[in-house]
Write a structure and sequence with these properties.
This protein is mainly beta. The chain has one domain: Nucleoside Triphosphate Pyrophosphohydrolase, CATH 3.90.79.10. The chain is built from 2 helices and 9 strands. Strands 1, 2, 3, 4, 5, 6, 7, 8 and 9 form a 9-stranded mixed beta sheet that branches. The radius of gyration is 17 Å and the shape is globular. The two termini are 32 Å apart.
Length: 170
């Protein structure tokens, strides 16, 4: 189908999304998290999964694998889409967040220019200073039965600027 049939030219006033990936690398009962460098533009000093923007002409799964490699020097097995989150920023452009997991047999990783990499026991996540959605997403992911369809969720901010979350019923 030609690009002209996608309807983008007539969608100028519609809500638009920037695609991003968020990846949780698992090994046994631990997850690899990145503690953002103090000079990082967003989420300095906070623990987060690996990830970033999806590049133009890149599939989201390829972006997830690339981000894991760039940030941790790891090739993972069983890279799976676990959920999709629409982030309404209150602006005409929001975020389409694709949440992945992958596994490695032996916890390893390399230094990252974006912060320090740490293997953290899943049971200890709530004791860390994390990006707000990390504990929530990890709880959701670890509770998913094997072979479950990816979850769908929406984040937005209320009139007072407080972060809100809604998961679609499964």
């Amino acid at each position: 189908m030609p690009a002209s049939e996608q309807g983008v030219a007539v969608s100028g006033c519609r809500y638009q999304l920037i695609p991003r990936v968020l990846c949780f690398v698992l090994s046994g009962d631990a997850v690899l998290l990145l503690k953002g460098a103090p000079d990082k533009k967003i989420w300095p000093g906070l623990y987060n999964g690996l990830g970033g923007h999806v590049e133009r002409a890149e599939a989201v799964q390829a972006a997830a694998a690339r981000e894991i490699w760039e940030e941790a020097g790891l090739r993972v097995s069983d890279l799976r889409l676990r959920g999709v989150v629409t982030v309404d920023t209150g602006e005409p452009v929001g975020i389409g967040l694709y949440v992945f997991t992958g596994t490695v047999a032996t916890p390893a990783g390399v230094a990252s220019g974006e912060g320090s990499l740490e293997w953290v026991r899943l049971a200890d996540i709530r004791q860390l200073a994390c990006v707000a959605d990390v504990p929530l997403l990890l709880e959701r992911i670890t509770a998913q039965p094997a072979g479950a369809a990816p979850f769908s969720a929406r984040y937005w901010y209320d009139a007072e600027g407080r972060w809100q979350v809604a998961f679609d019923p499964t």
